[in-house]
Amino acid sequence: MPLSLQVAPRDVYTPPVTDPTTGTVWTVNDTVTVTWDTSDSPEQISNRFGSSIRLRKGDRSLPVVLADQFDILLGEMEITVPWVCGLFGDSGNFSLTFSILS
User: Fold this and answer.
1) What is the average per-residue pLDDT within 26-34?
2) Edge-to-edge, what's the strand order for the sheet holding 51-57?
């Protein structure tokens, strides 16, 4: 007899990044705060503690993780400035392009 498994419904929550924005200038190795808007968060988030902030250059995501496994509902996370970064929730909600000075 086949085994019957039930799969719980999954959701995708992609809060918009609010900082950095176009025109933001950061300096490499400074500590800054990345922020995102959680005002419209759903009651159920399947992977609430599975978010990460990753290094991104142009349209490529690089294997450098700046923050990992944090609560997406925090709405902010301090990081040390690399080249470029973006918040990666469930579906790649990246920040706008901005400048980082070396």
Assistant:
1) 88
2) 60-70, 51-57, 85-88
